[in-house]
Design goal:
By secondary structure, the protein is of the alpha+beta class. It has 2 domains: 144 residues, Cytidine Deaminase, domain 2; 46 residues, no CATH class. It contains 4 helices and 9 strands; from the N terminus they run ααββαβαββββββ. A 5-stranded mixed sheet has the order 2-1-3-4-5. A hairpin with a 2-residue loop joins strand 4 and strand 5. Helix 1 runs antiparallel to helix 2. It starts with a helix and ends in a 6-residue tail after the last strand. The C terminus is likely disordered.
Length: 194
C-alpha cells in the first residue's frame, strides 16, 4: 500500500464522524427510531473501541444534544444512571435515545446490556425521563433492546412479578413503566427464541 492510500485510510474515521455530526444538524427531529438507528450506524461505522452515546430530545423529539457517555470497555458500571440523569436534567431533556457499539461485529444484546437497560429505565422513572430506545450497533446492523423488555405496540411493560408471599406469577402493566399492583419488579419476560 502506498503512502497516499495509507494517509487516506487514516482520515476515514474522522470523515465518518464529521459526516454523522453533520447529519445530526440536517435531521434535527428524531421522531422516527429508524432515523436514530441510521444516525447511530453511521456514527459507529469507523469506531474500533466500544462507546456509549445518547441523543437528548425535547418534547417534540427534536435534538437538544448529542452526548458521548463512555469510551472503552463497556460494562454495567461504565453506564452510570446518575450521570445520565444529571446530563438530561441539565439539558432539560424529556427523552433520550441511548446507543452503544459492539466492535466485534455482533448486534445481539448481551444479558448485561439488557440488565443495564432495565436498570436505566428504573432510574429514569422517578423523574419522568423516557428512554425511547437503546440500540446495540455492529457494522451496518442495529438492534433495539427495549422491545425485549416491553411490548411497544401495546405500550405495556412486561414483568415477572413476585408477590410478597413469594408466589410467582406473571403480571402485565397497563402503562409504560409504573407498577400500580404493588408487586416488586424483577426479571423481564423475554420473547421466545425462534
Amino acid at each position: 500500500m502506498g503512502r497516499c492510500a495509507a494517509a487516506f485510510l487514516k482520515v476515514i474515521p474522522a470523515l465518518c464522524e464529521r459526516y454523522s455530526k453533520e447529519k445530526v444538524r440536517r435531521h434535527m427531529n428524531f421522531s422516527s427510531l429508524e432515523r436514530a438507528a441510521s444516525f447511530f450506524i453511521d456514527y459507529y461505522l469507523s469506531k474500533t473501541e466500544e462507546e456509549v452515546t445518547m441523543l437528548l430530545l425535547d418534547n417534540g423529539n427534536r435534538l437538544i444534544s448529542f452526548e458521548r457517555v463512555h469510551v472503552g470497555s463497556v460494562n454495567s458500571s461504565a453506564v452510570n444512571p446518575r450521570k445520565l440523569v444529571e446530563t438530561a436534567m441539565k439539558k432539560n431533556a424529556v427523552s433520550l435515545i441511548l446507543a452503544h457499539n459492539h466492535p466485534s461485529g455482533e448486534a445481539k444484546p448481551s444479558k448485561s446490556d439488557i440488565d443495564t437497560t432495565r436498570h436505566l429505565m428504573d432510574a429514569f422513572l422517578p423523574i419522568d425521563l423516557q428512554l425511547k430506545a437503546h440500540f446495540v450497533v455492529a457494522g451496518d446492523r442495529c438492534t433495539d433492546i427495549l422491545p425485549m423488555l416491553y411490548d411497544r405496540t401495546r405500550f405495556q411493560v412486561r414483568y415477572i412479578a413476585v408477590h410478597s408471599g413469594d408466589e410467582e406469577r406473571e403480571e402485565e402493566n397497563s402503562s409504560a413503566y409504573p407498577n400500580p399492583s404493588g408487586f416488586s419488579l424483577t426479571q423481564p419476560i423475554l420473547p421466545e427464541e425462534k
